[in-house]
Task: structure prediction
Amino acid sequence: MNFTEKEIERYVNAHSSPEDALLVELERETNLRAVQPRMLSGKVQGRLLEMTVRMLRPRRVLEIGTFTGYSTLWLAAGLEEGATVDTIEVDDELHGLSSSFIARSPHAGKIRQHTGSAQDIVPRLGETYQLVFMDGDKREYPDYFRMLMGDLPGVAAAVAPGSYIIADNIIWYGKVAAPSPPADRHTAAIKEFNSMVVGDRRVENVILPLRDGLNLIRVVSL
Result:
């Protein structure tokens, strides 16, 4: 007996712990007000992020790509007292929506919002992160990785041995499995990123086919 992806997705959602009312409201508002609401992580991935934070117990978390703040709230929910998440969004038009929901969350005190390019902001913050959730501009994934690992001139690494990086949309609707059209910069950059990661002996990784794919990366050395 064969089941469709939608049927499996419905079953997984129905048998995973529900999100709280604020996140349900934020998902609804994202669908009403955001240009590309499908970019929202969703309940199952959000719950996975929260559980990952609880397991790793990081003191500093970095999120590249706040969007409307949905995944930010899941990350913050798993943090212990005194731990923080720096979340960065390049689109300043999304700040009002994300900040309004973050302000209403009991985890607001754990979240520091930044607006602008992650490649400009992360070096200025000068932090070392135990967990990074990468969900920004897919065309910049290779540069995000170089920045985090300290491979850019004059930029210190933002991770350390034992840190984890989770990169979202790594399957990119299945396009990574086919030859990329020359003009498809998003797919080309994600394929480059995946190749960089698997070929870098300083890290080890596994790609999880959850939703649009997550690349789970552990930093072994720098």
Q: What stands out?
A: The chain has a mean pLDDT of 92. The two ends are 48 Å apart (CA to CA). The first helix runs from residue 5 to 14. The helical segments are 5-14, 21-33, 43-56, 70-77, 95-104, 118-125, 141-149, 185-199.
